[in-house]
Amino acid sequence: MDERLAIRARGITKCFGDVVALDGIDLDVVQGQIHGLVGPNGAGKTTLLGLLLGLAVADDGQLDVLGAPIGRALAAPEGVAGFVDGPGLYPSLTARQNLAALASLRGLDARASGIDDVLGQVGLTDVADDRARGFSLGMRQRLGLAAALLTKPRLLVLDEPSNGLDPAGKKHVHGVLARLAAEGTGVVLSSHRMDDVEALCSEVTILATGRIAFSGPLNKLAAENSELDYRLLTSDPQAARRLAADTSGIRVVDDAVGRHDTEALVVRALVPALDELVVRLVHADIALRELSPVVSPLEAAFLALTEQQENSR
Ligand SMILES: Nc1ncnc2c1ncn2[C@@H]1O[C@H](COP(=O)(O)OP(=O)(O)OP(=O)(O)O)[C@@H](O)[C@H]1O
């Protein structure tokens, strides 16, 4: 077995009655990698994360976590921490007391366990003595992450960790995850926020109806991607539109995000044709003020792959 693998899954299947939540999943996640799990509602993300956390057992297949096969016991495997469906907290206890309770449940010495340190890492020092009952969703998520950090995991499993986070909270959480990964911890997280996945993850798995539509490096996904829509702002929108319509490999389309802004030009193209258009604009003395994909390459690939898979069913 490859010792760098935090997760090795082969042929994992999980059903709930007639519903096949996971249908023969193969997945490798190496230590020190932040791996994003994305997919439409009901794709099987939470089910997969639950198996990693020992909250449920697969019906079929082989799942190795941190080098050891997962047995049939419903318990978090040694070295694994995280949460699905929001962290479990005691509402009547303060943030600090929640962590102390967890430390004592885990047999850790509360004073030596680094409670202040993990509260600081997630940015909750100022509310450490406030009751969790009054915490917002984002604060609860951050406290859940602090609880996971307390156990010094070698694999961190998080379901939608960005839910409810404000920009400051997001900065803390992203910083913590990046630091953990740099220290060698494997991180698997699900998200519906493609921008978060793109900012954090080096590899991504796209699930659709319990099957893997893509798994691998983000840049491979972008390279495999077909045409994307790009939005261009130029000094002469009318002339730019005419030139685009006259450029091979470029299709002028309506603004897919409905920004109905007459100044913008939206084109569908592969990168080489887009390059050609930019060169032609410059030669025609039309200044290019802004050029950006209408949706990110991950989002576009995600939509294309999941539609493809759903159509083939
Ligand atoms: N405990 C359960 N009992 C019955 N069906 C379940 C159970 N848990 C999940 N399912 C079903 O399994 C499928 C996968 O659900 P899962 O929650 O893993 O999807 P998800 O990708 O996490 O979705 P979302 O993005 O909405 O959170 C769905 O069809 C869901 O209805």
TrEMBL record:
InterPro entries in UniProt: AAA+_ATPase, ABC_transporter-like_ATP-bd, ABC_transporter-like_CS, P-loop_NTPase
GO molecular function, one term: ATP binding
Domain (ABC transporter): residue spans on this chain: 7-234
A Pfam family it matches: ABC_tran
Keyword list, A-Z: ATP-binding, Nucleotide-binding, Transport
Protein origin, superkingdom: Bacteria
Classification via PANTHER family: ABC TRANSPORTER, ATP-BINDING PROTEIN
UniProt similarity note: Belongs to the ABC transporter superfamily.
Protein name: ABC transporter ATP-binding protein
Organism the protein comes from: Streptomyces aureus
